[in-house]
Design a protein that fits this description.
- The protein is an alpha+beta fold.
- It has a single domain, classed as Alpha-Beta Complex (Nucleoside Triphosphate Pyrophosphohydrolase).
- Helices cover about 30% and strands about 30% of the residues.
- Keywords: Hydrolase.
- It comes from Deinococcus terrestris.
């Protein structure tokens, strides 16, 4: 029976984030400095994302985190997916992610310099090397990148068809 209590997974934590791709399909990643209590994240790469704050919706979180972690104001283009993750302490988190694009005339310059060591575009080949080397913070980052590349391909195809 699927409507029973035992099939429910209680999730109290939510996160919002963005995948930003450049024209070549490189992904914008941030590298963690590590903060007290979370030094295990130091040096690891991930997409701009973070916890949904009280009174905030995941879309607003995604836009805020992009600004804080990359210094970019972004426009959400398309909802990509939500994945259920689990922290090392056993807590579950729902990660809501959007494909986003920077507003014109900006450069990458993180404003959260106490948490972010670096923010830059990473090629597909470099991403693969970072992932295989254990330098990508979570498996879901790989899934989000794949989702974004598929969506970008669909959007490009629709644009080509509209211009034909």
């Amino acid at each position: 029976m699927q409507h029973g209590e035992r099939t429910h997974v209680p999730v109290e934590l939510h996160a919002g984030g963005v995948v930003i791709l450049n024209e070549r399909g490189d992904i914008l990643l941030v590298r963690e400095l590590g903060v007290p209590g979370q030094m295990d994240k130091a040096g690891l790469w991930h997409i701009p994302s973070g916890s949904v704050e009280d009174g905030e919706n995941p879309q607003d979180t995604a836009v805020r985190e992009a600004w804080e972690e990359t210094g970019l104001r972004v426009r959400l283009v398309k909802y990509l997916n939500t994945y259920l993750g689990q922290f090392s302490d056993g807590a579950f988190v729902l990660r809501h992610i959007w494909l986003a694009e920077p507003l014109p005339g900006q450069t990458v310059a993180p404003t959260f310099i106490d948490e972010v060591a670096e923010a830059r575009y990473v090629s597909r080949e470099e991403f693969t090397a970072l992932y295989e080397g254990g330098q990508i913070r979570m498996y879901q980052t790989k899934l989000f990148y794949e989702d974004a590349l598929r969506e970008r391909g669909r959007l490009d195809l629709q644009s080509e068809e509209a211009n034909a």
